[in-house]
């Protein structure tokens, strides 16, 4: 199923002594070097940043009113509802972020509005409804006398449904973190961090954190009403934040740190004394203690998500998270555990079937994996697609035609969606897609919208539905599209290591040192450790049974790892593998260090392993200081930049033309490196400045008309033109111009080459209309693809450019 992996080791530089000493103060039993190295390479460059990163008490969180006028509008509308005793409905979502967000509003707003009489909640059924508002649900709330809907983790793009609610006399407050609408909907308020600048400390908030900020603002506005402290909600916020895999920076990190502490404190209480007995019981069932982010990401999050994947209706999860009835919570926790066991079983079955289908694919000619089966349950396809994408290094789309209805078409991401007229549901396939590396999966899917019934998502995940008969055409089209955008780049699975350590380094001291980086997540991943020239002993494996001991759910291998640095071995495990898969003899491995609360021991969790004979690492060049981001700056500024070292014997290479593929950048990188290496006595790499501006594109149809107009003019005046002149005038690339020249021939134009010039003559002819139209369509498609790529390179983060370019050698 998986191909040969590419291993990389993050380029590192020695952190300054002050940072090492500062880290050592927090972990006096260790040197502090490894954590300092990671913190330095992840952007912690001064003492104030370090203090706020490690100690949440030193961090200054943002006021909820940083959302500006929209937050004031939301509070004013809630105060109106409070004063007039209106009935309010919370409209949530069925994933872990949506469930915890609903729970935060249920508990938080429940301090101001009587639960079950003034305040109710509604969560769509994953298997029958889609993410977001729907008219049927709004009708139901209207019949119950609701005058205000507060959404959480959803609703930003539900323009038609918001208008429909308004017609029924229901106002809507949207709290969400997904795609922004093109224009502000007619809502009482819309609170979405995507309206804020990307560098704002609230920008990365997930749905549950946005809901928390709304409650926080209400607590501040009506300070003498609530009986329970606002901080009681933080454990739920931490669960939603970490389960949703958002970037844990700014207030996200602060809220997660606070929440994990509350979670652990509550778990230490006897069951009868816990604020959240349901959460405590779930932690017991998954043998976690709540003190680690992984207790959420591997324990609580998957269990909460499993309920809607298996049963569709996840409404009872709010009761599980918020009720103080120990007996009831124990019952609901066991139902949740059963759903998770069922989810594991289904996922395992689908993984086996997908593996069989993958064996029939030629991955060397496949850019996007698209597989379908009539028996696959839609609820687990996203999980399996994510695993396949990681193992193969390719975006993966899995489709099912099982039990089709007219509800949720696999939009498992909570993002915006586009919908075509509803076809016969029995002819539709629906599924989930997951991406890898820097491939923008959502854009790939969106560009094939004409073949789809409905789709939604973001760059890393998407959901879609389409006619079964369109699957072959969709598969061919999306593969061709990605191949064109990748050029000669080969997609292979990549594993990145952050630090090189020895077995002697492993243990409590290293664990506590690296724990300073927690909570980890996007932008701050769990540290991956490279251990070289090691070997395994005492390996064994076992099948893990499901919760009731009836069926094998997964297997894991356990072992001791050794190397020449120590006489002692260190324990470890490898999930999903048998002991026979461990190499015999010397090898290299990449692992994470962990503390097993069940066995009360420190251990490594194996990520990847291979024999030493095949362990040549692709070490990325230390490119960050040498690739300079000068995009969207004035040309006059380029000559006065102070980033160029005056003593530098080389001038910086400046790229002013926006590229259309990664190969364009790699050519410049090779030139930069070749120049540096050929300069005697110069040990540093030459700087490469990316200095293109955001493109101002004409519509593709207008570009075609311009090309035809120029061709007619040149034919009429008998003038010659250079290729460069044409490219500059029309604003397209060489490759697209070639497509355009071929298209002109269908309309009677002849293009001949004379030395370095082109001669164009025109003899109108009765060409086949269908062939001419098809040729124009190909040209327009090439222009659109080129414009999309230029738009991408105008906005792609520098970190992505560095990461992709680093694989040059």
Secondary structure elements and their pairing?
Layout: E1 6-9, H1 17-26, H2 33-41, H3 47-54, H4 69-84, E2 87-91, H5 96-109, E3 119-122, H6 135-143, E4 146-151, H7 159-167, E5 171-175, E6 189-191, H8 207-221, H9 234-243, H10 251-267, H11 277-285, H12 293-311, H13 316-322, H14 326-358, E7 369-373, H15 381-392, E8 396-400, E9 417-419, E10 428-434, H16 441-446, E11 454-458, E12 461-467, H17 471-486, E13 494-497, E14 499-501, H18 508-514, E15 529-545, E16 552-562, E17 570-575, E18 587-596, E19 601-611, E20 627-629, H19 635-638, E21 653-655, H20 662-677, E22 688-690, H21 700-717, E23 720-722, H22 723-730, H23 734-745, E24 749-754, E25 757-762, H24 769-795, H25 798-805
Parallel strand pairs: 1-13, 2-3, 2-4, 4-5, 5-6, 7-8, 14-15, 17-19, 20-22, 21-22
Antiparallel strand pairs: 8-10, 9-11, 10-12, 11-12, 15-16, 15-18, 16-17, 18-19, 23-25, 24-25
